[in-house]
Amino acid sequence: MSLHVLRPGMLTTVQDLGRPGSQRAGIPVGGAMDRLALRVANLLVGNDSGEAALEITLLGPTLQFQRDATIAVCGGDLAPAINGIPLPQQRPVQLVAGSVLSFGSARGGCRAYLAAAGGFDLPEVIGSRSTYLPARFGGHQGRALRAGDVLPLRGTCPSPPYRMPKYAGDLRAPRWSAGLRRDYAVPVTVRVVCGPEYTELEPASRDRVFTQEFEVTSHCDRMGYRLLGTPLAFCNYREMLSRGVSCGMVQVPPTGCPLVLMADCATTGGYPRVAQVIAVDLPLMAQLKPGDTLQFQEVPLEEAHALYRRQEGELERLALGLRFKREEWK
Amino acid sequence: MGSRGAPHTTNRFAPLLAISPLGMSHPSLPPSYAIVPLGERALEVVLGSTVDRHTFHRVQAAVQQVEAAPPPGLVECVPTFTTLVIYYDPLVVAYHAFAEGVAKLLAGTARWPALPPRVVEIPVCYGGPFGEDLPVVAEHCGLAIEEVVALHTEPLYLVHMLGFVPGFPYLGGLSPRLAMPRRNSPRLKVAAGSVGIAGEQTGIYPFETPGGWQLIGRTPLPLFSPERNPPTLLQPGDLVRFRPITAEEYNALAEKLL
Questions:
Q1: Smallest CA–CA distance from B223 into chain A, residue
Q2: Among A297, B141, B254, B255, which has the minimal tally of Cβ within 10 Å of its Cβ?
Q3: Helix (H, G, I), strand (E, B) or coil at B55
Q4: How many of the other CB atoms lie within 10 Å of CB of B178?
Q5: How far is Cα A241 from Cα B184, in angstroms, rounded to an integer?
Q6: Which of B37, B42, B230 has its CB closest to that of A25?
């Protein structure tokens, strides 16, 4: 049974947590830009946190469910609604067959994640269901969704996993929601650790990395964001041999305007790597759109790791709490 | 807590410098190297500073050493021209412990002979619609078209690493006589299999992308097939030779590969 795409939205793709392990073949890890939102949505519907979900960008799609389903929408607030009824986010919601999910104007952030209980019945490519658009593989036929597409949902009609009283119309939802969510309000402070070529910036630029505001330009997509600000300068700019890079790295090309690499970035690059956005702040980056502004804040590596461990602990507690609720309900 | 206003020092972790006891007796082992943190989830083992076969073998030996006894927390190794990037999981291991684990392995006493390379022959149809920039390259280099093809097909190129896009090989060994800058404006679409020159490098586009390289020919061989295992035709360490073919041979091969 399936999900029919009535309208595709701006850029809706199937993503999971990507395909680590093949970077030496030039294959990026990829996966959801806001991994936290994807994982919370999956946990809420009882999936493994890394199950494939839909990544919805700015202008959302219109989707019709051909069977009953348990879904959750997390991440940016793109004003989702079912049959016109505003859909509560950060919560599992039970819908009946024929329900139509649509989105309105973005009210905060720009990427939302739709998880369905059971996930999508799509083949894995190189160990993942994430869509890698530049090489057109993975996810749903290696591309963004189009009107007329039909996505197979795995499994049969689920019964509500929790006590879910009537919410509105045909929707059922619990009274509680998951609190694990970042504040996507802009302007935003994004924490980074310094990169190996940070010291190649001349001293005034080293300070300016952390004191000036940068604006996200219209050159922003899943591969990376170009930022605008007073250009940074190097002591002695030299072209580097291609070196390893990964999601979150802040590169500064000769123009002096930083480039923040995101989920589908190449595995190697030749520009100086002056910093890397820490893992727990990547969701903040993922929710930025052209015109938004940000500032970088340096943190020591140990702090970045401590924040990451704390977030993983919170996800574990959420998973455990949800499991207890499911057990109670059975 | 931010450190804005405080002096910024990158070397919060001074690179671990190590001298391998076997450095003198085995040319493949890194006699000296540095380990530096690379962002939040990786470290970089710096094994050289120039693109050459000696550095390549040092990087390859380091990969073998680390993968033979992977330290706890290791996620994956990515060799580049002069470094080995190693990704780790901070939930399993902290940076210092992981870096020490890697340093111990690289100081190990095992012998690592260079792996016997595979020689991969890549059939290329040069010029015509498959290599629109071949005449421009010939003129820029002051050579006849046949000479460009001869110089391009003569060497055994080393695949130093893959990167840029899935399956794209960084090849070492292009004749300096064929060096040519990129196009002033990139093409919006470069066909899969296109063989090009940019600067002092030559490479092959695994799939259709925009690109600014000077295109001199095309191969019908797929460099990247996500459904296959392994998904890439080439691996670091392979030796590549280009073999010129006619348009008819190209079409015949292309049909066979469908």
A1: A25
A2: B255
A3: helix
A4: 20
A5: 21
A6: B230
Contacts of B166 in chain A (CB under 8 A): 25-28, 132, 135
Tell whether the model's pLDDT for residue A276 goes beyond 90.
yes
Contacts of A30 by beta carbon, 8 Å cutoff, 6+ apart: A15, A18, A19, A128, A130, A131, A132, A138, A263, A264
Size of interface A-B (CB pairs under 8 A): 152
Q: Quick check: B70 pLDDT over 60?
A: yes
Phi, psi of A193 (to 5 degrees): -105, 150
Could B94 and A303 be called an inter-chain contact, meaning their C-beta atoms sit closer than 8 Å?
no
Q: Do A297 and B4 touch (CB under 8 A)?
A: yes
As a whole number of angstroms, the distance between CA B90 and CA A269 comes to 24
Complex prediction ipTM: 0.95
Q: Which residues contact A305 (CB under 8 A, 6 or more apart)?
A: B40, B90, B94, B95
User: pLDDT for A134-166, tens place per residue?
Assistant: 999 999 999 999 999 999 999 877 788 899 999
Q: Give the mean pLDDT of chain A.
A: 95
Of all helices (H) and strands (E), which one includes residue A207? Answer: helix A203-211
The answer to whether A52 contacts chain B (CB < 8 Å) is no
Distance CA A163, CA A271 (A): 53
Task: Report residue A148: phi and psi, to 5°.
Answer: 100, -15
Nearest to A102 by CA among A68, A157, A145, A65: A65
Q: Which residues of A touch B203 (CB under 8 A)?
A: none
Q: How far is B145 from chain A (nearest CA, A)?
A: 30
Average pLDDT over chain B reads 87
Which of B2, B82, B227 is opposite residue A125, by nearest beta carbon? B227
In chain B, residues with a C-beta closer than 8 Å to the C-beta of A136 are 207
Residues of A in contact with B232 (CB under 8 A): 25-26
Per-residue pLDDT at B11: 36
Please give, rounded to a whole number of angstroms, the shortest distance from the CA of B154 to a CA of chain A: 25
What predicted TM-score, i.e. pTM, was given to this entire model? 0.91
Q: How far is B82 from chain A (nearest CA, A)?
A: 8
Tokens of A41: 């949505």
Lowest pLDDT segment from A81-95, A109-123, A149-163, B65-79: A149-163
> Residue A296: which residues within 8 A CB-CB, separation 6 or more?
A189, A190, A191, A192, A209, A210, A214, A250, A275
Residue B196's SS3 state is strand
A268 with B161: Cβ contact below 8 A: yes
Residues 6+ apart with CB under 8 A from B179: B141, B197, B199, B200
- Separation of alpha carbons B236 and B58, rounded Å: 13
How would you classify residue A46: left for phi > 0, otherwise alpha for psi between -120 and 50, otherwise beta? left
B35 pairs with which residues across the strands?
A: B16, B45
